[in-house]
Amino acid sequence: MSTPSARRIAVPITSAAVVAGMVFTAAPAGAAPTTTPFTNACQASATLTVHKTAATSMTVDAPASVDVGQTFTYRIQPGGSSYPDSESGATTTNISRLKVDYEIPANATFVSAAVVPGTGVNIDGVAPSVLRVNTSGVADAAGSILRLSGDNQVIANGANNSTNSEGGIRAPKLKKDLNGNGTGGDSWFRLPAVDVTVTASGAGTITPKVRTAGSAAAYNNNENYYSFLPRATFWGSTQWAPTRCTPRDGQSAGLNAGAGALATITVNDPGPVIVDSTTTLTVPGTAKTGAAVDLTATVTPAGAGGTVEFKDGATSLGTAPVDAGSATLRHTFTADGTRSITAVYSGDAGHNGSTSAARTIEVSTDPVIVDTTTAVNVPATAKTGAAVTLTASLTPNTATGTVEFKDGATPLGTAPVAAGVATLTHTFTTDGDHTITAVYSGDATHTPSTSAPGTVEVSTDIVVVDSTTTVAVPATAAVGAAVDLKAIVSPNAATGTVEFRDGTEVIGSAPVVDGVATLSHTFTTDGDHTITAVYSGDSTHNPSTAAAETVR
Question: For the whole model, what pTM was predicted?
């Protein structure tokens, strides 16, 4: 490349060329690397102003496509460059303060960037590094530019600027090509590759580019993406030629392909993750013709929305919304007979639909109405002003309806019956003995009943002791077959409730009676189920959690 001079004093600027067969060692997995050849137009400012063009390239190795929210890495590297041994009587010395600026691409959140070891060739000086900088060239965690340089030692627009002293990344005069072979003249070098890690923000594309936004697009501007400082000697005199380059075909030409997308990464929106659901149906065993009963569906996992359609065979009985994992339809059967009821969950944006196993209801004008017994379970003592749990257990546990709790003749509150249990949290406000009874309302197939009284001794000062809970479960269970899960609470004077969990999922709760809580549960999936039991505590016993046991 010819180099103009002032008074025959050579002022070299770099001669860049496309280097074929560039190898990206250990590059990120993706599509084939994309190499974009283009022309740089550069101005070197020495004794005379010199305008030159040189062929160059950028190679990007990036995945062809990613998903929204995916974090990935792409690699970008300039092509090789060279400068001559001498020109017009002047002897070149080296090129230093090399800098390349890349834009952080739109539609991506920056994570990190790093120089790829072993990818620079024939360079020395300050070790190459990558800084995130703003348009002023100052290190900035919110900056829009990634700068490859030697500690931001550049000719301008950096933290350590100079146009007449060596610094930063240097390309020494080696007279070698990129393979280390002697040339006898030109000295070749290649700046290292940079790995850029980002997270895809939205559907569309991500396009790595060199810096050309704003003033960086202007010819011979301190913000130009590529700049460096050539040095030469002529008759013992040092000549400096600070050089600034932009991707264009000439001084007055517009920006060329080097200023555009150097690669195109498609960002796909895979949509929401949809998980399977399980629907379990609970219905009374019998119902009276013309009398309303509750049909209840429980949908897991927690957080499922949508609706549940209840069916009698193929006939739709109605639809109810899923709220807190449950949907209930109150329905009146108008004809005698055996009804096969199913619950069909609609699914939602994040959950697939599911259908329960069928449950049978015997409907008749005069159904068999069974007697019930109600047992109340209350703590022996309670602290004035502290909440305690009052529990009523119904036999048989198919009973529905409500239970009213009373302190003598005074109503304390009402709770629904679920799986044969009704629970009320209550705070006593006065000291003394309180006689508690539980009055079951009855339903279409179960007679009302009242429990024997239980006594709670309420005082301002009571002793609260620690409890220990252990879980007892069968080693194996069949899918679809009910098994008993038990929790033993010590000391056995403890009252309250135990919540049973399968991993982190709550599968039910049961009252503590004589130190034991029992839950009948049906597993709906194969595999190991890790069961724990969490005791609630009461006014005189602290809560406790059992060690996990596995059911296969």
Answer: 0.55
